């Protein structure tokens, strides 16, 4: 061993090798140093403009070297191929799994923000030869005009692959889903070949590749646009080329491996850390002589890793992850939580709680114990095969530590579950060790003297074992159909619904105004941010609408809603105020409302430009007041109302205003500026709640400009607000009863209108009042509050002394419903609500409830 190490050091001291090492170390060192010595802008520009030409050179070099070595590769691959039976089995299972994924799992985004960044970068690369994210832009005459570009914090290898397909397949990148599915069988077969090449154990390779492909997380990701499938593909490819270079040991082979590893480094920023495993295990071959192998390998690897190094350097110290939660320093906590998430039992309905198979994780633990035991036992006998495997895996998974330590790698956040793809192939390999051992024992126990019969027995046992594993995954078919992975991810559902709506529309050039415009840019659709639209002049907005022939749409999406729509550990922000101001200032015509979760809608509206008026000036209404005209408290009183009309825009000439009292028109005039008042005689007021509505409408097109309602409770003749009576008892399914606010403490909002008086409860509920037979009529409004949107419907009943006197039937979100019932001689009044199949979001508002003698 001493002589071997001395020999390596002597070859390392070769001038060419020393120069190569210095250059290869200097490249990442200088790149990382740049921002720390005042050259951040230099790194920024290099990160934008250098990756694409480097990728092109890298691709050409790889093709050229492989062309020179293709005959050698054919000869080498023939030497490692296992017997036909195991190869045929691998092909058959790979085909079955691919068909299953393609037919049972819907192709759709599952990590929307990240996946859309890759797409937007690809569009920018293709049209502008820039490697940044095109955040906002217009597609026009075969060009993409990016009006806002930023450096992409994602590595750019996947975007480059998209670019390669765009000349043939177009800039509507839906075809990427097919590319990712095609990558699935290629990755599985490459992994099989790589393990066969290194271990000469086809059975181990078969089970390792099979177990990897059968994990739900893996299958879901190969039906998305994520970078993780490319990670699995390139890791297997690099391992295969590594073995080829290790065996052939020439400059060309090592150069090809360096090119492969350099592109592998473009999948995730953390991937750079796993390169140390390849480098360390390559050293004995690279330094077995004084040659160009080592300098060529190191310089090539360092040079073509530059795109990833630039990204890492530019964003060093940038807090990507965590949200309100500090992402760093939670390795053991995340490890523990992730184990819990990956081993969760089935739900009550027998569904997978998460896209992980519990048996797989326990199989990995058994395999890890088996591997360590074999490594120790082998080392004692000076057989280091398993020890080398263990050492390689430990070095390779420094990247796993980096992921869990430095980002919020908590798998309870669904979008983070994709990180498991970095670990799953290795876990499958380790888990396959005891499986292979047991299958071999079974084969040996059933073998006889007939070699042909033994081969058939081995194939049959392998087939049965493979069918058991495959059948276990396939029997969760319904879970795959239901998209159990990320089915609670708001943003992916949002985009899916928007695109579904878009498919229903005639094919036209469109422009979207959206909080995340790069999502649409990735699909080849023009899009800008709310803020940019607000900054544009009225004339420019009109030109924009004319350019797209009226096909400009505003989308109120996830970012416009409150903090209930995201996880505290997620990287999210909300711009609700921005959206509210935009909607106040712009002329929008509602097109589609799509319920995403109990917290928010996606709202699509046709954009008609800037409003020619200020909505806040249209009408202002004071509270209703009962008083006498003279101010004398003893004089006859009336209900006074006051309002002002302050909008001076020319368009106000097209408006009328109408005042309604309990549904009857009491005033109707042309809109004109000024303050106005009036009164309703007290004898015109009915007992209980009285309503006044102040409506402003465009008389040319009938468009409602404003609608404000005010309520006054008249306690004449002993009318009582139900909210002022104590209840005898109350129970509800969730939360507690709220007086004069909704269940979540907000102003009541039903059918888009606001109310101040009533109860907020959650179905199922029952509230009992003792009204002692004093009243003749009970009147109330009711509806589902819009603070929570996902209710599947509620039933409301009013029960008088045990008799149902009002039954709403099933009602859902919508306008306020009115109940007016006789309660003469009734002693016990009950308001009861019932949930249906699902109690989620059953926030019921009881509005303006009144008892009238």
List keywords for this structure.
single chain, 853 residues, alpha+beta, six-stranded antiparallel beta sheet, five-stranded mixed beta sheet, 21% strand
Characterization of this structure:
With 853 residues, the chain is α+β, with helices and mostly antiparallel strands. The protein is 45% helix and 21% strand. It has 27 helices and 28 strands. The strands form seven sheets. Strands 16, 18, 21, 23, 26 and 28 form a six-stranded antiparallel sheet that branches. Helix 13 (275-286) crosses helix 18 and helix 20 (424-446) packs across helix 21 (451-474). The longest helix has 30 residues, at 51-80. It is elongated, with a radius of gyration of 35 Å. The termini are far apart.
Shape label: elongated
Cα separation of the termini: 104 Å
* Helix vs. strand class: alpha+beta
The averaged pLDDT comes out at: 90
Tell me the strand percentage band.
15-25%
Rg, rounded, reads 35 Å
Looking at how many chains there are and whether they match, the oligomeric state comes to single chain
What is the number of helical segments per DSSP (H or I, 4+ residues)?
27
The total of beta strands comes to: 28
Low-confidence stretches: none
For the sheet with most strands, the description reads: 6 strands, antiparallel
Q: Which bin fits the share of residues in helices?
A: 40-55%
Helices, strands, pairings?
Layout: H1 2-12, H2 15-33, H3 40-49, H4 51-80, H5 84-104, H6 112-128, E1 133-140, E2 143-150, H7 157-169, H8 176-199, H9 202-213, H10 216-221, H11 228-248, H12 251-264, H13 275-286, H14 293-304, H15 306-314, H16 331-342, H17 358-380, H18 385-396, H19 398-406, H20 424-446, H21 451-474, H22 477-481, H23 490-504, E3 511-513, H24 518-521, E4 526-528, H25 530-535, H26 538-547, E5 552-556, H27 576-585, E6 586-595, E7 601-610, E8 620-621, E9 625-628, E10 637-645, E11 655-661, E12 664-670, E13 674-681, E14 688-698, E15 704-714, E16 720-721, E17 729-732, E18 738-739, E19 748-750, E20 753-755, E21 758-762, E22 765-770, E23 777-784, E24 794-800, E25 803-811, E26 817-822, E27 828-835, E28 843-852
């Amino acid at each position: 061993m001493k002589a071997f190490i001395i020999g390596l050091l002597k070859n390392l001291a070769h001038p060419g090798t020393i120069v190569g090492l210095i250059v290869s170390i200097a490249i990442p060192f200088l790149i990382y140093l740049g921002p720390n010595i005042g050259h951040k802008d230099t790194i920024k520009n290099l990160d934008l403009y250098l990756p694409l030409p480097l990728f092109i050179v890298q691709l050409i070099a790889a093709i050229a070297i492989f062309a020179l070595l293709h005959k050698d590769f054919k000869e080498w691959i023939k030497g490692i191929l296992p017997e036909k039976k195991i190869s045929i089995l691998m092909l058959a299972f790979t085909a079955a799994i691919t068909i299953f994924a393609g037919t049972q799992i819907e192709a759709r985004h599952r990590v929307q923000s990240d996946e859309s960044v890759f797409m937007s970068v690809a569009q920018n690369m293709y049209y502008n030869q820039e490697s940044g994210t095109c955040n906002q832009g217009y597609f026009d005459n075969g060009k993409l005009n990016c009006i806002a570009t930023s450096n992409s914090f994602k590595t750019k290898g996947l975007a480059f692959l998209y670019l390669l397909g765009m000349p043939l397949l177009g800039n509507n990148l839906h075809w990427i889903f097919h590319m990712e599915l095609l990558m699935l069988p290629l990755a599985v077969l490459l992994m099989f070949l790589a393990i066969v090449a290194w271990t000469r154990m086809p059975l181990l390779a078969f089970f390792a590749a099979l177990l990897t492909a059968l994990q739900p997380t893996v299958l879901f990701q190969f039906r998305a646009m994520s970078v993780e499938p490319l990670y699995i593909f390139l890791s297997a490819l690099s391992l295969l080329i590594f073995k080829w270079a290790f065996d052939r040991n020439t400059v060309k082979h090592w150069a090809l491996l360096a090119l492969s590893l350099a592109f592998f480094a473009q999948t995730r920023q953390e991937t750079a850390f796993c390169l140390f495993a390849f480098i360390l295990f390559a050293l004995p071959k690279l330094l077995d002589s004084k040659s160009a192998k080592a300098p060529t390998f190191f310089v090539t690897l360092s040079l073509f890793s530059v795109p990833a190094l630039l990204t890492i350097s530019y964003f060093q110290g940038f807090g990507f992850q965590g949200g309100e939660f500090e992402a760093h320093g939670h390795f053991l906590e995340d490890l523990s939580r992730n184990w819990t998430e990956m081993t969760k039992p089935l739900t009550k309905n027998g569904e997978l709680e998460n896209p992980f198979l519990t048996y797989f994780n326990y199989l990995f633990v058994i395999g890890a114990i088996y591997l360590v035991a074999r490594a120790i036992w082998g080392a004692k006998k000076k057989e280091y095969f398993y020890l080398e495997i263990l050492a390689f895996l430990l070095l390779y998974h420094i990247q796993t530590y980096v992921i869990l330590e430095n980002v919020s790698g908590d798998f309870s956040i669904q979008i983070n579950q994709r990180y498991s793809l970095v670990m799953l192939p290795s876990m499958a390999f380790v888990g396959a060790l005891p499986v292979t051992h047991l299958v071999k024992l079974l084969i040996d126990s059933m073998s006889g003297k007939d070699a042909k019969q033994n081969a058939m027995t081995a194939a049959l046992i392998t087939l049965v074992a493979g069918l058991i594993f495959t059948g276990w995954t396939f029997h969760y078919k319904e879970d795959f159909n239901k998209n159990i992975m990320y089915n609670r991810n708001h943003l992916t559902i949002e985009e899916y619904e928007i695109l579904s709506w878009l498919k229903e529309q005639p094919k036209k050039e469109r422009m979207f105004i959206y909080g995340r415009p790069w999502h649409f840019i990735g699909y080849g659709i023009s899009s800008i941010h709310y803020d940019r639209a607000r900054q544009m002049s009225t004339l420019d907005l009109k030109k924009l609408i004319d350019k797209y022939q009226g096909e400009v749409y505003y989308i109120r999406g996830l970012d416009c809603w409150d903090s209930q729509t995201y996880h505290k550990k997620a990287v999210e922000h909300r711009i609700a105020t921005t959206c509210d101001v935009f909607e106040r200032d712009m002329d929008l015509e509602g097109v589609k409302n799509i319920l995403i979760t109990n917290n928010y809608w996606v709202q699509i509206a046709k954009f008609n430009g800037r409003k020619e008026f200020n909505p806040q000036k249209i009408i202002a209404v004071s509270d209703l007041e009962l008083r006498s005209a003279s101010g004398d408290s003893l004089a006859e009183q009336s209900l006074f109302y006051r309002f002002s009309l302050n909008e001076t825009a020319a368009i106000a000439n097209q408006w009328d205003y109408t005042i309604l009292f309990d549904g009857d028109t009491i005033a109707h005039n042309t809109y004109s500026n000024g303050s106005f008042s009036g009164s309703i005689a007290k004898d015109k007021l009915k007992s209980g709640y009285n309503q006044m509505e102040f409506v402003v409408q465009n008389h040319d097109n009938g468009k409602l400009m404003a609608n404000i309602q005010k309520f006054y409770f008249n306690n004449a003749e002993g009318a009582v607000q139900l909210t002022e009576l104590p209840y005898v008892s109350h129970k509800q399914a969730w939360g507690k009863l709220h007086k004069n606010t909704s269940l979540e403490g907000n102003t009541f909002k039903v059918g888009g209108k606001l109310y101040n008086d009533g109860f907020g409860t959650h179905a199922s509920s029952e509230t009992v009042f003792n009204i002692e037979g004093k009243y003749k009529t009970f009147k109330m409004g009711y509806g589902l509050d819009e603070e929570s949107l996902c209710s599947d419907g509620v039933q409301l009943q009013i029960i008088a002394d045990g008799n149902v006197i009002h039954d709403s039937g099933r009602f859902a979100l919508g306008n306020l419903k009115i109940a007016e019932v006789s309660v003469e001689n009734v002693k016990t009044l009950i308001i009861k609500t019932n949930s249906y199949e699902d109690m989620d979001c059953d926030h019921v508002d009881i509005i303006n409830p009144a008892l009238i003698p």
